[in-house]
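Batch manifest, entry 17 of 40.
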Amino acid sequence: MIGTMTVRGVPRGLLRDAWWLSEEVADAVKPPAPPAPVAADRRPPLTRAAIALAVLLALGDLLFYGHDVGLSLALYAYAIFAASVAVLPNRGGVVGPAALMFVAGLPVIEHLQALSVFLLAGGLITSIAWLRAGSSGLARSALRLWAALPVAGVLDGLAWAMDRKSPRVAPGRWRILALNWAVPLGGGMVLLSLLVQANPVLEGWLDLSLFEDWDLEETLLRLMFWTGLALVVWPFLSFTPPAPFLGPHRPRARATLGFNTASVANALIVFNLLLGLQTLMDIALLWGGGPLPEGMSHANYARRGAYPLLVTALLAGGFALAARPHLGGRKSLSALMMIWLAQNVLLTASAAYRLWVYVEVYGLTYLRLHAAIWMGLVAVGLVLIGWFIHARRPAAWLVLRGGGLALVTLYICAFINFAQIIAAYNLTHPSQDRGVDLSYACSLAPMAAVALQGQTCARAPHIDGWRDWGFRSWRVARLLAAGEGAYEDTRGR
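Output type: structure tokens
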């Protein structure tokens, strides 16, 4: 038996490509082939998604069709999330998304308004994106789902009907069955209706008494409702998260827009001087009670400057962010920037004081109350920008804290009965020019009914049933009933 000689130290590539070796030796040194990549199916199962869609359509018909909306909207959002948990592959865990979904539904349970609906929609989108993609790709997945809402249902339906490949819809027997029988059944029904009209004998064979009470208009409206609801619900059941980005990170070139070390330095000097002049004038005229131009009261002076100064503070924040990359050119620029931001915080406080003076004279409104909240957010945002620049934090630090601050503020505002606050203030603080503006206070009813007790316009919120129930409406109605009972007892004595 002839032995095999092994030459150690010869490179594998030489052994593999050497023609002078035997075929057995060459095959022995071939590296094993890498395993074929298994493509993960990121699409949800079509059958389960279709069943979930049918259940949600039936539930939506029960909750919404012909009924006012309230508590039912939060319950339906919870049902969509539960169906998504049952249908979609879970990559992000259930506890976190479920907790987020529960918190997002509370503002709608409190009171149905545009803000609470916005928070509910945002919470539903974010929780399902979290469920499907996990926390790592949450932002991209949420944006993708938000963008898919208006068109995903239509595109999937067209792809399904036209027998084309879809990223979410896979071919199946149900599609094939529908394609094979859609034209025969649809055409047969049309043909049958024509034949019945033309042939009295055929008409006699068919018992048409079942269709005597059929309301065609109501049927069409219901079909339109189901179709619209399906287009809204389907993207949540068929959502496919975007594939993770594996390419190299390439930093984007920053647009200078006229910003450089010299321009930033000159701008900070000019801006600080102008803002310092405005601050001195406010101290002398607004807070010190100095003389104003003829025909102008302090209330008009406050009203004229409140909102422009707020816009100035917002622009100051934008300028600080744009100028940040150029602050390292000179040592004095960081100090000038801190002075600039501090002056804008004082400017925001001046705008808030102007607004307060105006409210004392002319009363409180939704716009003035929201402006006060916005001024507080701007002031805190300017402080965050200052720390962001001073501590040299990354941009994500500012985005997360600024966005979180705004979101928490909006969430808290969803639970505040501003109508009650405005009406109570205006009724107890008559304006200097018109006294108590009862017409505006009455326009805030029924949510301001507690403050309007004793007035003819005080009415309790109408709750038709459990579907349109809201905690705030129930609470106001209960307090109003208790107040009216106490008022009647006082009159009886």
